[in-house]
Amino acid sequence: DAADSPLDLTICDREPIHIPGAIQPHGLLLVASIEGDHAVVAGAGDLETRLRSDWLGQPLATLIGQEVGPLIEGLSGGLNAQMPQPIAGRDERFTVALHRSSTHLLVELEPIEADATTAAATLAWLDAVASSFERATDKTTLCARAAAAYRTLTGFDRVMIYQFLDDGAGVVVAEDRAPHLPTFLNHHFPASDIPKQARALYVRNRTRAIPTVDYTPAPLRPAGFTGVDLSDVALRHVSPIHLQYLRNMGVGASASISIVKDGLLWGLIACHNDGPRQLPAPTRSAAATLASALARQIRTKEEAAAYRERLQLRTVEDGLAPRLGNEGTLPQIIRATRDELREMLDADGLALVTRDHVEASGRCPPDAVLRAIARWVHERGNEPVATHELPALMGVEDDVLTYASGMIAMPLRQEDATLLWLRAERVETIEWAGNPHKAPGHSAGPQANDAAALTPRASFASYVETVRGRARRWSQEQVEAAHRIRRRLFEGRQQVRLRSLNREL
Ligand code: BLA
To answer: pLDDT per residue over 350-396, tens digit each?
Structure first.
């Protein structure tokens, strides 16, 4: 069964989606020369009926009624300009966007509805929503507000805030949807659903609109222009694999707005509609602006939470400090502070392993296992270790480390000892939208042996995966606090040594 066999998902990463040689046919594309009067040398879409029959070879200004010279002067690439005024076609009005590829000027015409909301009204609304983002007390509230706001702005049936995880997979952290739709809240999606090059494009262009998943692509013509780089073109024809994916999901139109935090793609605002639905250029601009405000507020909320946690940890540390510097042996000091040390980092167990002693508190594996862990830390270079999946890191059965699936290890070199904070296994259930392990398959059609005949998975029904050998993650603040504890213990020991040295002298 091809669908069960592992397959090379890098094939998805290699699809050259920036040069599809065609556009989505709801708009028009003009390809003009960079030089001279910017004569139009190619195009795509129904230009004859919707713009004018003799478009080919015309100077750009004749077709779009405005000079572009001043805009492109001195530019060597990377131009993305939305012209301020729409232009008239035969029976409709178009917004005009200008891009510059390495070889040509690319001019996109997108139909705009007559009753489009005024810019002023949109601005006022954006302002109000942005301040409601600011007032949100935490990230969860913020994302819930964002989902609702984007549903209002776009009018789509379902809006999800989709956050990428470390491994490129992602999870829906907030959702606002029409009542008849099933929920994807908290569902995970594998990394291969949004391949690498697509993610790179979504950093470069902050919105992606697919007004209908059932369309006939409009090829670039005349022939010979199919290799033009359409990276910046909003009308860029969509990967057939992704169109099939959306159809399999039962989605009629899709739009995504990138959430870019500190230059990295943090997530997407993923919008679905049952039937076809446009996301016109002015709305896309508003959506992108709001996404910048959202990204900033996500960062603010994360920083505030980290600050609160740091403050709380510092308070506990300050209370402990005098006792960490006490007279006595290291095991004596740990015995006197072990409960506070353990609770401080929200650990299940705490252990000090010295050459001839194990001092354990809370839920810990047997002494022999604690010794083995300490030995492993030592052999690894005797550096601090923080992990939420120790079995995988040590290459040991999950069952051996049930009480030590998570660990922060602090070697105390001067004392030839290791201090361990441990967290017990928390069997994780991850709800996937469809089974990720048989995710994409090869089509059973005539091209079944062709690598290009990759198909997205057919089912998005909930699939619950059980993951073993993991504990709750340590926060950055907790790991830093463990480092500070180590330093205080070390300084405390130094004081003790100095004092006893002084006494001897
Ligand atoms: C693009 N895949 C996308 C996009 C999303 C997803 C949001 C951006 C385009 C859009 O807005 O529709 C996936 N959609 C999701 C996810 C959610 C969602 C995760 O709503 C969850 C809420 N896709 C596959 C496989 C391949 C693949 C196997 O499943 C490759 C072989 C490809 N996905 C693929 C490609 C694109 C894409 C190529 C880029 C489409 C483009 O911009 O042209």
So the answer is: 999 999 999 999 999 999 999 999 999 999 999 999 999 999 999 99
194 alpha carbon – ligand 1 mean position (Å): 4
- According to the model, what pLDDT value does residue 451 have? 43
Mapped to the 3 state alphabet, what secondary structure does 88-128 carry?
ECCCCEEEEEEEECCCCEEEEEEEECCCCCCHHHHHHHHHH
189 lines ligand 1 (CB under 6 A): yes
Model pLDDT for residues 284-294, shown as the tens digit of each residue: 999 999 999 99
- The span from the CA of 93 to the CA of 170, in Å, is 39
- Quick one: pLDDT band at residue 446, thresholds 50, 70, 90? very low
Q: Is the dihedral of CA 68, 74, 76, 82 positive or negative?
A: negative
Q: How far apart are the first and last CA of the chain?
A: 81
β-strands 462-467, 428-433 pairing: antiparallel
Euclidean distance between CA atoms 97 and 118, whole angstroms: 19
The answer to whether the CB of 12 is under 6 A from ligand 1 is: yes
The least confident of 15-19, 124-128, 343-347, 439-443 is 439-443
The pLDDT assigned to 78 comes to 63
- For the whole model, what pTM was predicted? 0.87
In this structure, what is the dihedral angle of CA atoms 231, 103, 240, 441, given to the nearest 10 degrees?
Answer: -80
Q: What is d(CA 15, CA 13) in angstroms, rounded to the nearest whole number?
A: 6
**Which ligand 1 atom is the nearest neighbour of the CA of 270?**
20
Mutate to test the pocket of ligand 1, among 205, 229, 245, 259 (most ligand atoms within 8 A of CB): 245
Measured at the alpha carbon of residue 404, what is the angle toward residues 401 and 406, in degrees to the nearest 5? 125
Structure tokens at 127: 């302002």
Q: Give Cβ neighbours of residue 219 (< 8 Å, ≥ 6 apart).
A: 21, 22, 44, 226
Cβ contacts of residue 29 below 8 Å, gap of 6+? 23, 43, 44, 45, 106, 107, 108, 109, 218, 220, 233, 235
| Mean pLDDT across 262-271 | 97
